[in-house]
Amino acid sequence: MRDFDRGKSSRLPGGRTLREWTLEAHEKSIEVAPGVTYPAWTYNGRIPGPTLRADEGDRLRITLVNHSSHPHTVHFHGVHAPEVDGVPGIGPGLVQPGGRTVYEFDALPYGLHPYHCHVSPLAPHIAKGLYGALLIDPKQGRPKADEMVMVMNGFDTNFDRANELYAVNTIPFAYMNEPVRVELGELVRIYLVNVLEYDLVNSFHVHGNFFDWYPTGTSLRPVEHTDTVMLCQGQRGILELRFGHRGRFMFHAHQSEFTELGWMGFFEVGSDGGR
Predict the structure, then answer these.
(1) Alpha helix segments (H runs only) across the chain
(2) Is the pTM of this model over 0.90?
């Protein structure tokens, strides 16, 4: 949740920062619930893939290495040339098993952007786990905050194109069992991304509080002060809030089915958050 990967950084001629990462596509069985394993497709052995973080205007260089038995790509939401769009038939196109390619582009625009495989059939390539978040910070930065990433996802464990489990960051009920600890009065910033497949919409709701909502994170001004947002697949945004009371506050999807099948958790608000 609080894991941000800034890559390997160096300086280009002219002084700009170059950031480099390697994403490796692997097939891996993961335990999504006690006793329930899922034959996932992953970037770097995890779902979601690493949260790549850069500053506005940095040069980004991402190498995809395909260790799986299926062709894959990485498609980044953002502004870039078609040759690095990560779709079949353009630029390097499909990266075959055992192959590799490099995507290089500028970090634009600032905001929060998903990345995912873009190989047909699209639904299983996303549903099986090939996605993550790219966070581009504005040049002027944002106010200091306790920052965390929540990628809303789910799992079709019997492969009938309907989800049996829902979560943020993959494990149902994870933040019920281990509440997210935050400090009283501290600014909390959540980078929220919806990559859920097989359902048209997803949502985020917090109890006992309201938050400022920045859709896509491409503006420094919020558009709404609310306690619930609805997102289609690929939609994302930044929410900011402060807790004025100690105790446990639930957060969850405001689709009851999603909540009951795993997409719910607690914030634990204390004087020091226990962190």
Answers:
(1) 122-127, 174-177, 256-260
(2) yes
